[in-house]
Request: fold
Amino acid sequence: MVRFTVLASGSKGNSTVVSGGRTRILVDAGMSCRELFRRMKIAGEDPTTLDAIVVTHEHQDHVNGLSVTARKLGIPVYFTEATHRAWMRWLTPRRQMTYAQWIEQCRRQAADRQAESTEETEPEEPDADSGSDRPSALKDDPTWLPAVEYFEAGRPFAIGDLDLSPFTIPHDAADPVGFVFSSEGIRMAFATDLGYIAPNVKAQLKRVDLLLLESNHDLEMLRDGPYPWSVKQRVLSRVGHLSNEAAAEFLSTGYDGQAAYVILAHLSESNNLPELARVAAERALEGRASLLANRLLLAAQHEPLSPICF
Ligand SMILES: [Zn+2]
Ligand SMILES: [Zn+2]
Reply:
């Protein structure tokens, strides 16, 4: 069974569960672990069956609950190398360490972890009064993860029964990516946090059964809205976020119309209204929407979408 469940979408947190065959992955962990688990339960997803977390980029709304969630579940995290490095810098801004030193530290920690797990200690237990500083040193390092795997944009890879095709998106992060996930012949595209639809992105969004696309802001609302000018410039830039107008432009002229579901995502709470995003996309789809094709859904910030099953 192929399933796609958006748990949250927007500048306060992003997370989606993608399932195919026996594999389940979390795409971004942008909320606290507790909140992610709460939403998974609401949506009928079991957190303990997750196999991995995949990270699109290091912005806070995509990684807020990353370490705690990965540690609690003991599952690997997939990043590009540049995103991993940027994430670590964000967590430890004052640490003076070369990358080589850090790699060495990771090796040591992995060895420690191995030794620790053979002792069957409970990893999440606080151990303030324990004489040994080894386990607490592990927990004190905010960048520690059970396992880290690297992927590269442009190089497809697999996690269990899911195939992932990561592609570069234009956004102001170290090495941001979108994905096409596929399993059992079903293809699902995931593209948020992009300043514009670059040609490589357009190519990736073809022949998909599900298209999740950013529809971040209404241009007029952003222009007249509360953000300082510098932030408005950032959002509007080629490495910012996709407007309703730009998403609609793609849906009317660049999109092949083949998806069963089109999900508008990463809507701004300050500079957009769900109805504005919906109307812009509906106009762009021009009667191509039906129960079988181009069914339009809006991903929300505060509640999960019902799972989409294929
Ligand atoms: Zn974001
Ligand atoms: Zn971002």
